[in-house]
Amino acid sequence: MSDLIYSDVLPGGKHWSMTMRRNHRLRLTDVDGGANVGMLFYNPINLLERYNAPDTLKCQHTFKLTQGHCLYSDMGRIFCSIVADTHGWHDTVCGNSTKEIVASRWGNVSYQTHRNDWQQSGRDSFLVEAAKYGLGRRDLAANVNWFSKVTTDESGKIAFDASAAKTGATVELRFEMDTLVLFHTCPHPLDASPTYPRKAVRFDIREGAPASTDDACRLSAPENGRGFENNRLFHAGCGCG
After folding, report:
1. What is the b/e burial string over 119-149, where b = at least 16 CB atoms within 10 angstroms of the residue's CB?
2. Of 97, 116, 95, which Cα lies nearest the Cα of 106?
């Protein structure tokens, strides 16, 4: 069993950031069911390298994220791998809630009027965390939405599936390189809840071992083997960036 380094609960509608070290594990738990965790990834020694959702989906021939998948940077390296997942479907195509979406759906509830109970948007939450590292609007990319499932109909219209929520669902990430992580617990942009969702998420950080040569994430798609090799070269000082 890997050793626990840190554990905390992030209330709904809040944001945080941290640097995850190579081989460390980040386990997210949907405490009450119905949570959404928006997340972005950056290389802390080269902030121009960040999460690339299109490449992540394309090279693994998938529309959803779940156990066995890897999350790629825009330089062909792997930020992290999904080594465990009890939810089964995580969105990375719908992006963030914005201030306009939140106001139109749940009203304009500001910090000035409601203090810590104000209704934050995912985009603004990312911008607050990004600013701590000298990043801004142009540095935001398409994000992951952990614990959120979306479906499509025959016409291609995307819909949020609220029935997929599972109390106590978990997803565990193994980081394959040092990674700056920005995350928030603001609503999914397609969530039609009648009230602003405030769903807490527990996060646990543990030490862990590196991926083995027969690791399931490494072998789940041909491109993942190349991604792990790109990481190896990067850590050996032979990769660009």
Report:
1. bbbbbbbbbebbeeeebeeebbbbbbbbbbb
2. 97
Most distant CA pair in the chain, distance: 55
For residue 67, count other CB atoms closer than 10 A to its CB.
17
Q: What is the mean pLDDT of residues 7-30?
A: 98
For residue 149, the model assigns a pLDDT of 98
CA distance 104 to 205: 36
Which residue, chain included where needed, has tokens 């299109």? 54
Q: Distance (Å, rounded) from C-alpha 165 to C-alpha 148?
A: 8
- The rounded distance, in Å, linking the Cα atoms of 62 and 71 is 12
Distance, CA of 2 to CA of 25 (rounded, Å): 9
Dist CA 198 CA 180 (whole Å): 25
C-alpha Rg value of the chain to the nearest Å? 17
Per residue in 64-102, pLDDT (tens digit) is: 999 999 999 999 999 999 999 999 999 999 999 999 999
- Under DSSP, the state recorded for 91 is B
**Distance separating alpha carbons of residues 15 and 222, to the nearest angstrom:** 35
CB atoms within 10 A of CB 97: 28
Q: Give the Cα separation of 121 and 204 in Å (integer).
A: 24
pTM, to two decimals = 0.95
Please count the residues of the chain: 241
* 218: amino acid identity, one letter: R
Distance CA 148, CA 88 (A): 10
